[in-house]
Specification:
- The chain is mostly helical.
- It has four helices and no strands.
- The longest helix has 57 residues.
Length: 161
């Protein structure tokens, strides 16, 4: 008896078409739709598009008489966006400066905490348990090795009957 004969071979059963993982390809695929030009996503692209539109309207103003009201509204929106962007950049610079200042103040405060705790330790002594009140570990004596190895365990008294 060979190893090949001992292994039982199982043949997979066919899966129904409605339960198949991937559908069968369509024999007559539809042509791919035409790609449209992507709309601008970045602020600079949007502003460039608005400026381009305003320039085109200014060049063709004689043919586009009734659109003046809409052009003025877009010019106003463009100015407001530029102002808001300027405020945003100013606030971003202020945020960076505030973050830098905060880091410097925190570093100075940590140094002062170390100095204060050192002064407290010097005033109270390095072994007093009162140091724990200030977040300082007091120096404690080590226990002798014999006391750790053979702790005195009281023996229970056995009642005589």
């Amino acid at each position: 008896m060979t190893k090949k004969n001992r292994v039982q071979r199982l043949k997979p059963e066919p899966v129904p078409a409605e339960l198949a993982a991937t559908p069968a390809p369509d024999p007559n695929p539809d042509p791919q739709p035409k790609k449209r030009k992507a709309k601008p996503a970045a602020l600079s692209d949007i502003l460039r598009e608005w400026e381009s539109l305003l320039n085109a309207v200014a060049d063709n103003m004689a043919d586009l008489g009734p659109v003046e009201l809409y052009r003025k509204a877009l010019v106003e929106s463009l100015d407001q966006v530029r102002q808001a962007k300027g405020v945003q950049e100013l606030l971003d610079a202020n945020r960076q400066a505030a973050t830098r200042t905060l880091g410097e103040v925190l570093l100075e405060g940590k140094d002062r905490v170390v100095r204060l705790r050192g002064a407290i330790r010097a005033a109270l002594g390095p072994t007093t348990e009162r140091l724990t009140q200030f977040g300082i570990r007091p120096l404690r004596r080590r226990q002798l090795a014999q006391q750790k190895a053979n702790p005195q365990i009281p023996q229970p008294e056995i009642a005589a009957k």
